[in-house]
Amino acid sequence: AVALMLIALPAINLLGYLNQQMTLPAFLEPLEQWMKAAEENAAVLTEQFLNATTFGGLIINVLLMALLPAVAEELTFRGMLQRLFSSKRHASNNLATQSTPHVAIWCTAILFSAIHMQFYGFVPRMLMGALFGYMLVWTGSLWIPILMHLTNNAMAVLLYFVALRQGWDMEKVDAIGTNDT
Prior knowledge:
The chain is mostly helical. It has helices at residues 2-20, 29-50, 55-86, 101-114, 122-139, 143-166, 170-174, and strands at 87-89, 96-98. 74% of the residues lie in helices and 3% in strands. It has a two-stranded antiparallel ribbon.
């Protein structure tokens, strides 16, 4: 699971890059402007959190931006919502039965991505959510999606930390896997 997330990092970045190229039709320009402003605000907030060059700051960022979201979001989305979406109740006897997991996985993945309110990262986040959902179904353990989510977020925190300490260009770090590297 950890290796899969590490190997997937360039593909996630490429999908994010492609998602950022999205433009809406002219009649939706106000919506697009709002989406861009929301994205810029989120980026500023994220950079403020990640702007730590001490090891103490790194540990705090890993806890706040990797471990806590991995546990809380996976418990909520895969542990609760996916399970809720995957069971259906019979009106006659009110017993829950299992349905095929695909609808539950994809509904949960869409909600997982939408709740972040970052539209220019919607596609890669949705696909990661689906991957986490399928890994839960495949392994039967919620710990696997938690570990994958933690790996993804911790890698971002660690890369940002190393880039800041080494004076790397952050745009190059974010472009791993795109045509710009």
